[in-house]
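We now fix the convention by which a protein and its fold are recorded. Here is one such record, which you should read through line by line:

>
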Amino acid sequence: MRLTCMVRRLPCCAGCFVADTARRASGYRQLFLEIDRVITTAFAAAGLDGCVQSGPHYYLVGTTLAGHWRAVQTALLMRLLTKLHADDTTVPVLAAGHGQTTTGRLWTYVRDDRSAASTIPPAVWFAYTPDRKGIHPQTHLAGFHGILQADAYAGFNAIYDTGRVLEAACWAHTRRKFHDLHVVHPTAFTTEVLRRIGELYEIEELLRGKPPDVRRQVRQAQALPLLVDFEAWLRARLPTLSAKSDTTKAINYALNQWQALLLYCDHGIAEIDNNAAERALRGVALGRKNFLFVGADSGGERAAAMYALIGTAKLNGIDPEAYPPQSTDGHS
């Protein structure tokens, strides 16, 4: 299994790679992506146009890395799944002519069902936008039908309203609300909340790698009764608290999306949290420490393409730094 990008050997970090590729992109007239068995299986199943076969390998031929990789990722993510993880983070962007930066966004969409015994190769897609308006994820996911695992960002609501996408909320986000309270001022209440959520995660540990029908059956038998009791316990606590207290805010955060927090019990393919997307964004967070900004919106788009390529390679056990510098037009 091998995925080769014939551009240039990756420098020491994702941030350097993005900056290096942005500087060199105009010099590459054609970019080839060699896709070996695991990735090409997904390409063939997706019916992706533009694949050229040469021997056992497939090649994608195009004028820009960002354009073709965006097409590849869209096909891989949107046509071969029933569940997606989504999240976003900030990226500084140099404002033309001002010498200052604005705040753009990098969105990530992850397909990874290995914990539910899927043999479909995992993949991650990144998209850059100059702001965080809800129209962006709504456009990204216009062709998606299935389960969307995400945080409580209001921009996703219009997607759920279509009826073609089910909302699966994140127990890690919910836990974090109570954990932050516990760190500042531990109480018997926060201790009990964290214990109860911990019980849910203990069940998930036993289900990792099991097929969806088994996961659903066990969750229905073991997790759902705990969640029913948990909800009743939280609601009974609310009248004893100030409406403006941080504890009340944390409880309401959970209760306001309770049905979405329960959804994973009804669908064995779903996860208890959105950690797959959060893991995909770690490289971006590290990259921000290695480069000051992207030079323009076009640089943000190239960065998204690079993060998608690197992230998908890593998800498939491929070392993205293991390939020699090559290009089709003689540039090194």
